[in-house]
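Morning run. Coffee first, then this:
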Amino acid sequence: MSDTAAQWYVVHTYSGYENKVATDLAKTVENNGLGELMLDIQVPVEEVVEIKNGKRRVVPRKVFPGYVLVHMVMTDETWYIVRNTRGVTGFVGPGSKPIPLTEEEVSRMLSGGSTVKIDLAVGDQVRILSGTLEDFVGTVEEVNTATQTVRVKVEMFGRETPVELEVCQVERV
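And here it is:
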């Protein structure tokens, strides 16, 4: 069960234990002097921009809940240490044989892009916070997360008019 080059492996953990497993593995590696066999331990996270009531917050979110990536040389000793860490249910792979990730998979998993989470939905009543239509109230017709805009139907001069606004320009009523 031994390879000479370090490769990335996926370790399955109990949900919510990813950071604990990563910390415990790092301590074990340090205490046993296995730094040359276990090179890196990562919990893939991405930055999520949440927009609530017109306020932006950046929040880290786990990309793969229940999984930890370990860059290591697979030996009987490293396999045993990972497998017997509290919170680990096993390696990803058939039976007890872990399958290493390809370089492409690793770069995609660790790239950690960012996504935007907008707390608005079609049909919500919103108040416009800035611009020429400030303090007007309208109904959300469309939410576009890619451009971070919303189309709001506002009543002006006795008829409804669609207006495209940035998400930070509106708040839910």
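Residues 83 and 90 are 6 Å apart (CA to CA). Good start to the day.
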